[in-house]
Amino acid sequence: MTARKDRILELLKQHSFLSVNQLSETLHFSQSTIRRDLFDLEKVGLIQRTRGGAMHMSSKFLESPSKFKQTIHKKEKKYISELATNYIEDYHAIFLDGSSTCNTFAKELSLFKHLNIITPNLKTALELEEETDNNIFALGGNVSDVLVDGLQTNHYVQDYLIDMAFISCRGLQIPFGLSDRLQNEADLKRIVRNQSKQVIALVDHYKFNKGYLYRILPAKQIDVLITDEKPSSKYIDFLQRNDVELVY
To answer: What is the rounded CA–CA span in Å between residue 63 and residue 220?
Structure first.
């Protein structure tokens, strides 16, 4: 890691949040250079980029990332979740991935009856069991934070025939598609694609133009993408070329 990136991390640790402009003026580098550094630091999970700046991922957040994820972009997740309910009918078998977006979406499912809901997120499973009358299946495997993953989880999910899989991601980038920072999460979602009649991606606009190490799915393997605002024309064209239905 470069000395400049080390200095950015040091400043963010001291101040929790700084804008791109503040970092540029303090370090005497251009805003475009600072943005590239922030992008690289976010890819390895050391910071969280926000509109106009970045915040340091403290040890508290790194130890329990699910709690942190639930606190950001709540309005966007809620809006996307409301749109996603239009694709569900009673008696469907659905998969919800371990993301905070799908955890938000789960809160909308009390509107439905006789759903079979499969998830690797223990928090989501418990909330659904308490708040709905649907059938809830929590996948088995190694527990980390509120998620289960690993070879056992990948094996268990292959026992289900899924009508609709709802998944999120860390980033969406042309032409790479959906990507994640963690290999286990990406692997599980690829397996779920093979078990599902339809895959619906829930992606807020903050995730556009971001790419991470592990590909989840290329765009051509997504049936529907739901986001919270109209994407740029290049993304609209990209999704159309890959026969992805866009909803916002």
So the answer is: 35
Helices assigned H by DSSP within 107-219 = 122-131, 151-157, 183-195
Q: Which residue has the tokens 């042309």?
A: 174
The Cβ-side half-sphere exposure at 217, using a 13 Å CA radius, reads 24
In tens digits, what is the pLDDT along the chain, a chain of 248 residues? 688 998 998 899 888 789 999 999 999 999 999 999 998 888 777 888 877 888 887 644 444 456 556 667 889 999 999 999 999 999 999 999 999 999 999 999 999 999 999 999 999 999 999 999 999 999 999 888 789 989 999 999 999 999 999 999 999 999 999 999 888 999 999 999 999 999 999 999 999 999 988 999 999 999 999 999 999 999 999 999 999 999 99
Place of tokens 């949040």: 17
Write the CA distances from 14 to 8, 10, 18, 57, 199, integer angstroms. Answer: 10, 6, 10, 12, 42
Distance of CA 78 to the CA centre of its chain: 14
166's tokens: 């709802």
